[in-house]
Design brief:
This protein is α+β, with helices and mostly antiparallel strands. Strands 1-22-21-17-16-11-10 form a seven-stranded antiparallel sheet. Strands 9-4-3-13-12-2-23 form a seven-stranded antiparallel sheet. Strands 18-19-20 form a three-stranded mixed sheet. Strand 3 and strand 4 form a beta hairpin. The N terminus is likely disordered.
Length: about 575
């Protein structure tokens, strides 16, 4: 299908897409509760994304003969419009690809990088870490975006349709407009800093300062112009020339919290191919993204600890939650000490997922009593480094799962970090990330350097965990991932346990109550099945907190009859296909 065909799609199709969006949307992110959604089914291909318009764009690309990669690109660019608080070309992403013909998993790192001028004390003031909100809002937090170059590289490798064709659905939507969803309206209404940026205020808010109402048709001619340039020139149009100059001016020109990105930083950005992190869980094999993401390593550790327990017999309940949260404590203790950009720190991935090491860590779990707070272990194959553990703060994000008609798959987790990123909108119609606040603010702890400290050209540690699951015969079984900051690891692990051990379908699995621990309190999702476990876990010594845990998990499962898809009821996404 050529560009001209996409651009001549009828306005009736757009109206249909907008109608799809409205009934699917749950309450705003801050609200407790899950919308009731129907399990998605398909025979030939499937796309799952956080917004119906984005998922529809992906499905239409697949219908036109596009690959999973083509569909993921179209979805991401539409998400830039309909879910601007979470991801876009002003941010970064991780891309996990399955090549059915070559039987190969490839992972691409499009994570943002710190500018060349960045220094370890970037987020320190008077010897103390800056308050998070003060660090986020403005240019100081903006990293060099990687998403667009990542999409272009993925398309070069695995795209089937012309580049301009996969850009065109978002271009059309930017020009013709889309209806503001209840979730976007709710997030805009609760946002305190976005309207301080004049371009964002004019785009998202009415003259009286109120968020534009649900159903308002939002057009973005500035983003359409950006996409038109990108469709014609590729990522070169973004990383050099007028768009790049505007990014630099926006970041460095912030009146109170400027950053220091340069044109040279943008021109120098490179996508990195990383070795996939793969490991076994029972009869399954899981593959995901390696450092600077901590997601796949932490998942392997958690599931390796859980493998010694009969979770299927336990079923969902207090005993399973106890083991799950203790596994999370141990994984997050190692994550805090060892995980960072491998170009700057020697990350002992092989040792961290070593089965004997994981079994030794599992031996630290008492069936009867929570350990409270875990200490990092001493994995094999590590080089001696005097490092201090760190925590770091993460938020935001979106996830895309796609399987095409040829059996190729993409799991892509994408982010601008906090909700609405740095709250800086460019003249090109997109928001810029605040990804540098994923670095540890304090560069040292107890006189030792922190692995995830700010350094020039470095990529901040992430918890994003795009995951592919294969059966005992090496066949693709599932494509899973979630947004949610550092809670992503627990969200994805819960979904995998629900799918693989508790035999839930993907809609049941993503919707099931969230729970976990990030080596602090045990967290249970308020208003869900998990809340009922509070007293019994407290009896085992857990410090329990009831939280609103707004995952946005997208899961596709391949079956002999076709595909089953689940889109998290806590957000407005869908899983659709033919």
């Amino acid at each position: 299908m050529r560009l001209s065909l996409f651009l001549t799609l009828s306005s009736a199709l757009l109206a249909t897409q907008m109608a799809i969006a409205q009934p699917q949307a749950p309450a705003p992110e801050a609200a407790t509760g899950r919308a009731t959604k129907t399990l998605g089914t398909a025979q030939r291909f499937m796309a799952a994304a956080a917004n119906p318009l984005a998922a529809t764009a992906g499905r239409d690309i697949l219908r036109a003969g596009g690959s999973a990669t083509d569909a993921a690109i179209a979805i991401q660019l539409v998400l830039n419009l309909v879910e601007p608080q979470s991801s876009g070309i002003g941010g970064g992403a991780f891309f996990v690809h399955w090549d059915e013909t070559g039987r190969k998993v490839t992972t691409l790192d499009g994570r943002e990088t710190a500018p060349a001028a960045a220094r370890p004390d970037r987020f320190m003031r008077d010897g103390k870490p800056m308050p998070f909100r003060e660090a986020v809002v403005g240019g100081r937090s903006v990293g060099v975006p990687g998403t667009l170059k990542l999409l272009e590289e993925a398309h070069r490798r695995w795209g089937k349709l012309p580049w301009a064709d996969v850009v065109s659905p978002a271009l059309k939507l930017a020009e013709e407009g889309f209806a503001i969803s209840p979730r976007l309206n709710g997030l805009l209404a609760g946002e305190k800093d976005l309207a301080k940026n004049a371009l964002a205020a004019a785009y998202f808010y009415e003259p009286d300062g109120k968020a534009k109402a649900v159903g308002t048709v939002l057009k973005n001619p500035a983003f359409a112009a950006t996409l038109r340039a990108v469709a014609a020139q590729g990522s070169e149009a973004f990383y050099k020339g007028a768009i790049a100059e505007d990014i630099v001016a926006t970041v460095t020109g912030h009146p109170t919290n400027p950053g220091d990105i340069t044109l040279a930083d943008l021109a120098a950005y490179k996508v990195e191919e990383r070795e996939a992190v793969c490991g076994a869980y029972r009869i399954w094999r899981l593959c995901g993204m390696g450092p600077p993401s901590s997601g796949a390593v932490a998942l392997q550790q958690m599931l390796g600890i859980l493998e010694g327990q009969d979770l299927r017999r336990m079923g969902p309940g207090t005993d399973a939650a106890h083991w799950f949260t203790e596994a999370g404590r141990l994984a997050f203790a190692d994550r805090a000490l060892y995980l960072a950009d491998p170009a700057f720190i020697s990350v002992p991935v092989r040792g961290l997922i070593d089965q004997d090491y994981i079994r030794s860590r599992a031996g630290l779990v008492s069936p009867e009593r929570s350990m409270g707070r875990a200490k990092p272990g001493d994995p094999p194959h590590r080089r001696a480094q005097l490092l201090a553990p760190s925590d770091g703060i993460e938020n935001g994000t979106s996830h895309i799962s796609v399987v095409d008609a040829d059996g190729n798959a993409v799991a892509m987790t994408t982010t601008i970090e906090d909700g609405f990123g740095s709250r800086l909108m460019t003249k090109g119609g997109f928001l810029l990330n605040n990804e540098l606040t994923d670095f540890n603010f304090a560069p040292e702890e107890d006189g030792k350097p922190v692995a995830n400290r700010v350094e020039p050209g470095k990529r901040p540690r992430s918890s994003m965990a795009p995951t592919l699951v294969f059966d005992a015969f090496g066949r693709l079984h599932a494509v899973v991932g979630s947004p949610g900051g550092s809670q992503i690891i627990g969200y994805v692990a819960k979904t995998l346990v629900a799918l693989l051990d508790w035999k839930m379908d993907p809609q049941q699995a993503v919707d099931f109550g969230n729970f976990g621990s990030r080596n602090g309190p045990t967290e249970l999702e308020k208003g869900t099945e998990a809340e009922a476990w509070k007293a019994a876990l407290e009896a085992k010594g857990h410090e329990v907190r009831l939280l609103e845990m707004t995952s946005g998990t997208q899961a596709i499962v391949k079956t002999p009859e076709g595909f089953l898809g689940g889109a998290d009821g806590r957000r407005e996404g869908v899983a659709i296909g033919d």
